[in-house]
Write a structure and sequence with these properties.
Belongs to the thioredoxin family. DsbA subfamily. With 221 residues, the protein is of the alpha+beta class. The protein contains 8 helices and 6 strands, in the order αβββαβαααααββα. A 6-stranded mixed beta sheet has the order 1-2-4-3-5-6.
Amino acid sequence: MAHAQSKPNWFAIGISIAVVVVLVALGAVVVWLNNQATDAGPAPKGEIINSETGAISFGEGEDTLAVYIDFMCPICNQFEQQYGEAMQKAAADGKITLEYHPIEILDFRSQGSAYSSRAAGAMFCVAEEAPEKAIDFMNAMFQNQPDEGTAGLTDDQISEIAKGAGAEAAASCIEDGTYKKWGTAQAQQHEIKGTPTVEINGKRLDMSNNADFQKFTDLIG
């Protein structure tokens, strides 16, 4: 006797198809969220900005001194107070090319206000809109540095510092947070774990090492 032909279980098939569709949709959402998290937004541009490396450059010396800074980092402030004038003079005299890389590694220390990101973004705004005032703005930001663990300066306060440095043109860029994500992206790109981080001609220095520290001081001396 012929066996009855089994009928397809359309309910089970439908459930399976629905599960696949949901999984594909969830995968697309995860990819989208990851892209949103890593998307640095529009790249800053300008005569002193390298849009690929995130460097803001001063001077045209043969040797390049790169310094990675976070505006909430107290050691960065101490470093600038001690060596900033000499570094900036060496760049102005054409002895070195001085690159500042504003980055973010201390957002977690600003009560959720993302101060490091906002401050780094503001530096890019000034470098783009008023490049001749970028150094003055950076110095003023360190002079007005908030304590770690506080919410930091507001965007309006940062804009006022920019205006005080002669960079009124950057105010709207700062208030809009145009380059807020760039500091985080640059920290990740260059694998920066702490600030200040210093490099000479692309070689990262260990500033606790006497030989490396001597190279640094010789370069700016």
